[in-house]
Design brief:
There is one protein chain. The chain has about 220 residues and is mainly alpha-helical. The chain has a domain of about 110 residues. About 45% of the residues lie in helices and about 0% in strands. The protein has a two-stranded antiparallel sheet with strand order 1-2. Strand 1 and strand 2 form a beta hairpin. It comes from Zeugodacus cucurbitae. This is Queuosine 5'-phosphate N-glycosylase/hydrolase. Keywords: Hydrolase.
Length: about 220
């Protein structure tokens, strides 16, 4: 299951691939084309080329030093240590729920076990599993109710809600139902269908699960 290393917490939400069989994705630009098109047509922002060069050199430096490494994923205490089927289902559930944790400056941040943002989500999922909740089982989360999910997402202060709760529960229902209908309830089967190709896996995720299609129309392009 070497494809697991490609499941970073934001990886799937930037994929816009052209020439997909699915008609609703057929006209979408890929990420590089999207970036070039937006830079050329944007009216309210400017990308400074020198900044891109600085960032690229920083990333290369950290890759060479080992500070950035796909293997570091399991070293974070909120991430699974194993690389088995359990980890695949955990990562898929977390990635399904991982979007938009931004909080206005005058609002209380959503925290779980002291973590904020994505890591708060990871901590909430881990806490649920420790409490015996089968949160990585598609048969369970495809029909999970509001009260149960709110309990899973409960914050440290007991009052702050996870942002966009309704969107998150809708995503869980969608992907869980699709897994049960076509993939025997296991995201592991989607990974196997990709046949060790990260590119194919990304195509399958975007085509099979609509909530991962993070795309929009802009100045005549998608």
């Amino acid at each position: 299951m070497n494809s697991c290393c490609f499941f970073t917490h934001s990886s799937w939400r930037i994929i816009r691939k052209r020439k997909r069989q699915n008609s609703c994705l057929a006209m979408a630009l890929n990420p590089r084309e999207s970036g070039e098109y937006i830079v050329k047509n944007a009216k309210h922002l400017t990308v400074i080329p020198e900044g891109i060069d600085i960032l690229a050199k920083e990333v290369i430096s950290r890759l060479q030093s080992g500070e950035l490494d796909p293997k570091n994923f399991s070293q974070n205490e909120t991430h699974p240590k194993a690389t088995d089927a359990y980890a695949i289902e955990w990562i898929f559930v977390v990635d399904t729920l991982n979007f938009c944790f931004w909080t206005p400056t005058d609002y209380t941040k959503y925290k779980v076990n002291g973590y904020t943002g994505y890591f708060a989500l990871c901590a909430a999922v881990n806490r649920a599993m420790a409490e015996g909740i089968d949160i990585t089982n598609a048969a369970y989360y495809s029909t999970i109710d509001d009260d149960t999910l709110r309990k899973i997402f409960r914050s440290d202060d007991g009052q702050t809600s996870v942002p966009l709760f309704e969107k998150r529960i809708a995503c869980l229902h969608e992907v869980g139902t699709r897994l049960l209908e076509k993939w025997q309830g296991k995201f592991e089967n989607v990974v196997r269908a990709a046949n060790n190709s990260a590119a194919r896996l990304l195509e399958l995720v975007v085509s099979e699960f609509p909530c991962f299609r993070d795309e929009a129309d802009y100045e005549g392009k998608r």
